[in-house]
Amino acid sequence: MSHKAQVIIIGSGIVGCAAAYHLTQFGWKDVLLIDKGELFENDGSTSHAPGGVVPLSHNKLMTQFGVYTADLIASLEHFRSDRNTYNLGGQLEMAISEARWQDLIRLHGSSKAYGCESHLLTPQETQEKLPLLAAEQIVGSLFVPKGMIVKGADVSAALARDAEATGGARFVGHTAMTDIEVKNGQVTAVLTNNPDMPRIACEQVLLCANIWAPALTEKLGVALPLMAFEHQYSITEPLAKLANFDRSDKDQEVTYPTARELDSAMYFRQHWDAYGIGSYWHKPHMVRPRDVKKTAMHPFTPEDFFGEPWDQAQRLMPALRGAEFETQFNGMFAFSVD
Ligand SMILES: Cc1cc2nc3c(=O)[nH]c(=O)nc-3n(C[C@H](O)[C@H](O)[C@H](O)COP(=O)(O)OP(=O)(O)OC[C@H]3O[C@@H](n4cnc5c(N)ncnc54)[C@H](O)[C@@H]3O)c2cc1C
Question: What is this model's ipTM?
Fold first, then answer.
């Protein structure tokens, strides 16, 4: 393999792979992506995130990005035959307060202007889409049909596959960037820990290394305005109410829309006969660049979850009452300073 490239992308998460895909779509012919671990499914956030694609927001540009993303993903050939790269279940934004309901009514108005279909639903109509919901707990909801759940690592891999098929991009795993060589203010090479390609000459470097990025640029004297924060995700044991869902059937993994209850900073995602609960309802756990280690996952902090967030989850979905958990962790991803 040639030890040079026009641009080297660092990181095979969703961001690096989307960048490689789009560069090749724009006609770039010499893109090399490297990752410190396995390609696509690895220690990065993309591999453990539950994969909610939320197309609609109050911001027009973000909505256009969201709709473009949902359409692009839905146009991809599934990456593996044994699991779905994406599931088109739709998205439910639920209001538990009058103020949030007014917010959703405004968002519905914006959605028409932004070209993203949405529907205001009564509590009963919401419950028809999400039978586990206690309808009396909400004022109403906004349903966005384009919302989906993806297997992030498979979307990354599918984008990489299609980028590679153009002949313009190469992907190499187990190759960590250790430094960037700069001469006269110009990037000249990426140095790696791979003995087969310790120095890769290049013209540009695109750093898509998420929480690892600030520590990588620190040695170049570049302070990236990014900080890793933890975010909790919990998956229950199988729930009696969902016993009819068959884990061997990939089409039964996500059949209900993913639901967000924004006043409590929580969301709910089906995993066949179990439920995933994402919660931002905890004190912020900031992780300094030097404290970011091999993986983007930290141990679960139960004190952040058991109490108000878990009580609210059980109020909204009584089928969760008394559930035990199969998996719980604090994932990490990078947030910009704003
Ligand atoms: C619990 C949880 C739930 C989430 N839910 C959602 C959701 O529903 N919807 C949503 O849109 N987002 C969600 N997110 C956020 C989302 O997962 C991240 O924003 C996204 O995955 C970041 O992608 P990335 O490509 O930047 O990073 P990553 O996937 O972390 O990829 C970075 C890559 O860089 C590689 N790398 C690092 N250092 C080096 C090096 N020196 N050399 C070579 N390679 C290197 C890593 O190995 C890794 O593969 C969630 C995050 C968490 C933690």
Answer: 0.99
